[in-house]
């Protein structure tokens, strides 16, 4: 089939690349010309493992094109995919300015019947607005489809090629066959429903996953007080198929471009129809508080923060991405420097993005995890990059001024800590000290 994808962010670019791999002819469109020029050279504007190789392959095999000419792309395609951003407005509501503009541009460019498929996450009822906007700009017939995207950053390609399910929202039953045909190479698990339900499935799914995270984080906080270990609790809970084991990893909370934005948007969507979504409001509140766990554990172990030196391991909101949008690291580092602490940060790839957002004379940018720890009073692990699992903890104990490790993602095992000589704080697990609290050199002599 001939597809045009409007917007080359995560959703648009990954969808475009994956549809092209399945032998469709795809034209990806973006207003930003410098982005398009880079993409034509197979240089990706987003960090996503494997994407540049696939862009290059698709370009070579002539299934994928990039252009900033939306009109031409629309005219040459049968299905137009809207994948522009829907960022948050200050009140939490989704900003629909870009999607409405894209709908107007698509309508104005149409030269015959088109299927307009929305992949951007949009509030319930938006596809009907899109229909109105397009209709105002064209006399040609068209249909609207809601096809929300569930990909995760860092595993976006395999999530798109092998999804758990595909959700299609339509109001014209004749579209079912075309939509199934377009998606069946990815999975047979295709659920076709009405447009409003499809829009809601996306928000409800993200809100539910965020709820699981805040739930296990609160269980973790209680575990600390009653002497249980949340990692064991999560294993036991996850063995119940009704609960499932995923998204029960306690830590310093969720971040990223989706969960914070979509939970706030759903609270607003409910509020707009006079419904207070109490549970989801608490989920958001718990997530905000959870970040400060790092700060309170630093206070617990070192007393005041003014003048202390802290090493920070990991800035991105999760591993395998350079994305720092809504990352807990932003608030944690800002709070530390505000309190007068000196911070040495390390991240395998997200340091440049972080520095664009926040810089301060108290921050030192380090090229290795070891350098970030050298001479510090404590190290705080904020992102569970595999990189940090490889660090020799005995070495860490020897380069720190005080052997304190605060692990915001429960990365290290009891045994690793036992051999390390570190005073170790994690989330929802008993406080642990290595080598009976003795420094490695002394302990070695015992
Ligand atoms: C998420 C959804 O998973 C995806 O379906 C949707 O399309 C977009 O939002 P993403 O933001 O890429 O994807 O990240 P995800 O891997 O889901 O992680 C989100 C956040 O939750 C991260 O900050 C992660 O560290 C945190 N998390 C995840 C936990 O704290 N505990 C967990 O058990 C799982």
Automatic annotation (TrEMBL):
SMART domains the UniProt entry points to: UDPG_MGDP_dh_C
GO molecular function, one term: oxidoreductase activity
Record EC number: 1.1.1.22
Domain UDP-glucose/GDP-mannose dehydrogenase C-terminal residue range list: 311-414
Domain of life, per lineage: Bacteria
Pfam families: UDPG_MGDP_dh (PF00984), UDPG_MGDP_dh_C (PF03720), UDPG_MGDP_dh_N (PF03721)
Xref: InterPro entries: 6-PGluconate_DH-like_C_sf (IPR008927), NAD(P)-bd_dom_sf (IPR036291), UDP-Glc/GDP-Man (IPR017476), UDP-Glc/GDP-Man_DH_C (IPR014027), UDP-Glc/GDP-Man_DH_C_sf (IPR036220), UDP-Glc/GDP-Man_DH_dimer (IPR014026), UDP-Glc/GDP-Man_DH_N (IPR001732), UDPglc_DH_bac (IPR028357)
Reactions mediated catalytically: UDP-alpha-D-glucose + 2 NAD(+) + H2O = UDP-alpha-D-glucuronate + 2 NADH + 3 H(+)
SUPFAM superfamilies cross-referenced by the UniProt entry: 6-phosphogluconate dehydrogenase C-terminal domain-like, NAD(P)-binding Rossmann-fold domains, UDP-glucose/GDP-mannose dehydrogenase C-terminal domain
Keywords, ordered alphabetically: NAD, Oxidoreductase
Pathway per the UniProt entry: Nucleotide-sugar biosynthesis; UDP-alpha-D-glucuronate biosynthesis; UDP-alpha-D-glucuronate from UDP-alpha-D-glucose: step 1/1
Database matches in PANTHER family: UDP-GLUCOSE 6-DEHYDROGENASE TUAD
Family: Belongs to the UDP-glucose/GDP-mannose dehydrogenase family.
Name of the protein this chain belongs to: UDP-glucose 6-dehydrogenase
Source organism of the structure: Paenibacillus terreus
